[in-house]
Amino acid sequence: MNIEQYGIYILYTLIYIGCAVILKYTLNVLASKQYLADAELAGGNVAVGLRRTGAQFGLAIAMMGVLAGSAADSLMHDLMITGLYGLIAVVFVASALVTADKWVLPGIDNLSELKSANVAVGFVELGMLTATGIMAYASIVGDSGGLGASVAYFVAGQLTLVALVLFYEKLVLRHHNIVESIGKGKVTSGIYLGGKMIAYALILKSAIVGNGGDVSLLQQVEEYLLVAVSGMLLLYLFEVIIDVLIITSSKLADILAENRMVPAMQLAGMKIGVALILSNAVL
Fold first, then answer.
1. In 3D, which of 235, 239, 243 has the Cα closest to residue 282?
2. How many CB atoms lie within 10 A of CB 25?
3. How confident is the model over 198-216, as pLDDT tens digits?
């Protein structure tokens, strides 16, 4: 890579930093009714720190999707397109906070819990924001129809993610109220649900990126659902194998009920790893 190429990537990095600053102040405004974000961060509020970390990490992943897209006909035009999609990525990431508050953790006031240093809620938002960045990346890379297509893919991905999380909360974990546990500050439940959302997002990424082409809208929907459903089934199958072979000391129900953080982190990490491999090598 020559000096000119280094200079170009520095420009792209500056665009990302600019978007990160915009995201920072957007988050500050969204949280201002409950707390001053900078003061909470300076005071060592880990829950707020997890939210901010997830937002900036998610934005960085989304920006990778911007940079992986097709180059424009000139550097100036390309920088302008990058800046535009960067701002769209900021909107995508900020919208995830509304999703997490209203649908993923219904009945819980996320901002109030974050102010109270509820680390469990912080981990859920970290997972949701990272997952949002992954789907924003996929929406932009998989975009074959302009900005409108990117937004449509992102909305479809977000709705599918929420539906999967609600299905898991209500049916698979029907004997353990994970939302109630997170509201009570049980960090294990927050780690587990946050990791689950990242794993789901990786599967949905493959469904979005692999979609499109010269096919009808109905065929695109069918392909998206096929990859998403088959990916989730494979992920669930491997989750069972992981539970049996890796976490041998206790079962999931016991881990969540007894708030065991170490095996919960192992489960979350392994499931994200499996989803990462499935999304790139199998689907």
1. 235
2. 10
3. 998 998 888 787 655 555 6
